[in-house]
Amino acid sequence: NKSQETRDSVRLVVAHFDHGIRDDSKQDRLLVQKAAKRYGLPFTYDEAHLGPGTSEADARTARYKFLHGVRQAAKAEAIITAHHQDDVLETAIINLLRGTNRRGLSALKSRPGLHRPLLHVPKHELIAYAKANDITWREDTTNQDAAYLRNRIRQRIVPNFSQLDRIKFLAHIGILTSLNAQIDELLINQLHQQPSTYVLDRHWFIMLPHSVAREVLATWLRLRGVKNIDKKRLELLVNAAKTLQDGKRVDVDIGHYLLIETDKLALTQRER
Asked: Average pLDDT of 46-57?
């Protein structure tokens, strides 16, 4: 049948990244490598030496750098991860506590080049499936370390959600995800009316309400390939774009600066 043909046409590469945070992390790699061999799938891995105490953000950055490298080398359509419904809840709560912007609550989702097919499945169902099918897994010992915010949320907050609490929270996340998509589409349409890809009309930008200007600038930079701009830097850029004199330059990231002129704002790449 058609679904069987679709499955047969998919080619998978199993990629494993050892962060080098735990002494026993090699055992994780051996488990994954053994499973890949059992299913006849190509396997690749890399080892880092990030060390104990590495932040979740730094570990994630290193992991996805490796995964994107494997995707490119394998000419793969996308990265596939096993994030599940509990991860959605945990990520939303973390971002709320950190003072998220509108995108933070719906940050964990599939997007082009990154598929997360299990986001609708609660963790307890995955565990039950593994037990029923005699699938072996390993528990990351750092998951018990309360020094990590995610672990505190996982251990103390999410388990106290009633089923109704869980349903309501996930529904709110779903609504916000839809709203964010609509807002992003509106922002992109506005940016298409600008003088050029790397230029904004400064007079138009100055007249925007401050909160809207932040959203516009964040979207513009993201579309131009500038990523990981924190709230402090974004606020500095918005204020500079609205107030600095003609000819001033403001650093955006290591590879770009914002050139401020009387009638326009230009994202400019640094010469190397």
From this structure: 88
Q: Is 247 left (phi over 0), alpha (psi -120 to 50) or beta?
A: left
Mean pLDDT of the chain: 91
Asked if 210 and 217 touch (Cβ cutoff 8 Å), the reply is no
Report d(CA 113, CA 117) in Å as an integer: 13
Tell me: the pLDDT tens digits for 120-150?
A: 999 999 999 999 999 999 988 888 888 888 9
Indicate left, alpha or beta for 124 from its phi (over 0: left) and psi (-120 to 50: alpha).
alpha
pTM of the shown model: 0.80
| CA–CA distance, 222 with 46 (Å, rounded to integer) | 29
Instruction: Evaluate whether 92 touches 128 at the Cβ level (below 8 Å).
Output: no
Are 17 and 62 a contacting pair, CB within 8 Å?
yes
